[in-house]
């Protein structure tokens, strides 16, 4: 038996842990593993791939990025953002299929987010032996409570807030930290709570700058002169506007800049010196946390188990401490957003964090 693995979409810490799990578990039962380079692109003839042995994957568990490379552009884009699904041209699928057949690959593990798994679903519907592994740093894929990379991103946010806090205290400033989270504010919410933020702004909860300014002035009056604000890049300004940089080469909007706008307005309204920091790709780079190493490895081992059972069209999932699986169909096209009335937001409000709406 020979299986393939590819990483598709934006990278995140823990991708190599998945590869480590797949290669280890596959070799244990005598299977060969082929890793395709740069996502689905590696499938196009003549094929860009390498055989992966346990020796090749020794030491990669702790590495950020991906030894296989990844791309969120190319010939296999099935959708832009959460937009409409487009069919991948038959000619592209047929060419890629030739590589799979020539290499006698009996299962193909796709490690990717919503867009990449939508591509996987199209291939599965055309008879490909696809197994999905969820990858999203934003943690916004439905049907899995957690994906690897999220914990590492949250840890980076917490570290940034700890650092911003000391300088905010020294200068009695307001510090606004912009974090990733296109549609879902999980990184902002978890990072903000764990990092001691005073204000957390999410795409899911509309906010009022005046209410935040009043909150900051009230803190000041009580002798708390430093305030930490965390804002998700996908939060909308009070007029409903998303703050964007431009579009990337696939036509997807690149978000960024909301922290600058929020900081400028808060400075005007509070008359307190307010600074903005954008954390950007620091959240995606670097070594995975212990949790993400273990989760990634568990996902990899589960993917091999699914291949053993020929459970094609399924995606590895995580729920209540257990790694399990769901159909890819159930997992894609639905985002797992923060529930504005859910427990995490209630916890934040209970400890006095301002969510910008009251
Ligand atoms: O969807 C994950 C994500 O990290 C978003 O939070 C962010 O907007 C985007 O990817 C950045 O992607 P890229 O590195 O391709 O610009």
Main features:
elongated, alpha/beta, 2 domains, seven-stranded mixed β-sheet, 358 residues, Rossmann fold, binds 6-O-phosphono-beta-D-fructofuranose
Summarize the structure.
With 358 residues, the chain is α/β, with parallel strands linked by helices. It contains ten helices and 13 strands.
Structure characterization notes:
The protein has 358 residues and is an alpha/beta fold. It folds into 2 domains: 2-148 and 288-331, 3-Layer(aba) Sandwich (Rossmann fold), CATH 3.40.50; 156-283, Phosphofructokinase domain (Rossmann fold), CATH 3.40.50.460. Helices cover 35% and strands 18% of the residues. The chain has 10 helices and 13 strands. The protein has helices spanning 15-28, 90-102, 114-125, 150-171, 186-194, 209-221, 258-270, 290-308, 328-331, 343-350; strands at 2-7, 32-36, 49-52, 107-112, 130-134, 174-179, 199-201, 227-232, 244-247, 253-255, 274-278, 314-319, 322-327. It has a 7-stranded mixed β-sheet, with helices on both faces. Helix 4 (150-171) crosses helix 5 (186-194). The longest helix has 22 residues, at 150-171. The mean pLDDT is 96. Bound molecules: 6-O-phosphono-beta-D-fructofuranose (F6P). 6-O-phosphono-beta-D-fructofuranose (F6P) is lined by residues 10, 72, 137-138, 180-182, 233, 248, 254-255, 284.
